[in-house]
Amino acid sequence: MNLWTQLHMRRRLTGALLAGAALAAFWPGPLAWQTRLLVGWNGFLWIYLPLVVWMMLGRSGATDVQKRARALADGIPVVLLLAVLGALASLAAITLELQQARQNHDATAAVLLALTTVAGSWLLLPVEFGIAYASVYHREGGGDHGLEFPGDDGEPGYADFLYFSITVAATSQTSDVAVSSKPMRRLVLLQALLAFVFNTGVLALSINILAGLIS
C-alpha cells in the first residue's frame, strides 16, 4: 500500500498537512523562511493532534481498532519517518529562529513560537508511535501480539497504546506493559532512542531560550 493510499485513509493527517501548508504559504507579511515553516508546522500540529487524540481516546470498539490498525500497518514506517524528520527539523528551525530574534532584539514572539513548536513536536512522536504499536499488535491474526497489557479487560484500545508510547517518550523505558516479540522490541528501542535524542535536544533548547531571556 503506497503513501498516497495511506494519506487517503488518514484524512485527519492529510487535512492537517494541507491546512499547515496553506498557513505557511499565505501567512500575511514578510517572514523569514524558518518562521514561515514553523508557522505552518504549528498549524499542522495543533489541528492534527487534537483530532487524532480525540479519535484514540474515543469509544471505538475493539473491532474498529483492529480493522483500522491492520489497514494502516503497511504505511506506518513511512509516516513514522516523516513525523521523526519533521520533529527533528523543527528543533533546527527553532534554533535559527531564536538566533535571528536575538539579533533583532525581538525575542518574545520567537520564544512563544518555539515553546508551542516544542510542545507539539514532542507530542507528535508518541501519538504516531501509539498508532504504530497498535498496527504491529494487530498485524498478525493471532498468537503473540508483542505487548502484554496487565489486567483482563479484553482487547486493548488506542488509549492503551497511547499510554504505553507516552511512557516510553517521557522516560525512555517501558512501563508495566511487557514487550514479548522481536518486532515490537525493535519498535520500542527505536522510540526510546528517539525520545532520548529529542528530550536532550529540548533540554538544550530550553537552556538556550532561558539564556536568551536573561541576556
From TrEMBL:
The keyword Transmembrane applies. The chain crosses the membrane at residues 38-57, 78-96, 108-125, 188-214. The keyword Transmembrane helix applies. It comes from the Bacteria. InterPro entries: DUF1345. Keywords: Membrane, Transmembrane, Transmembrane helix. This is DUF1345 domain-containing protein. It comes from Pelomonas baiyunensis.
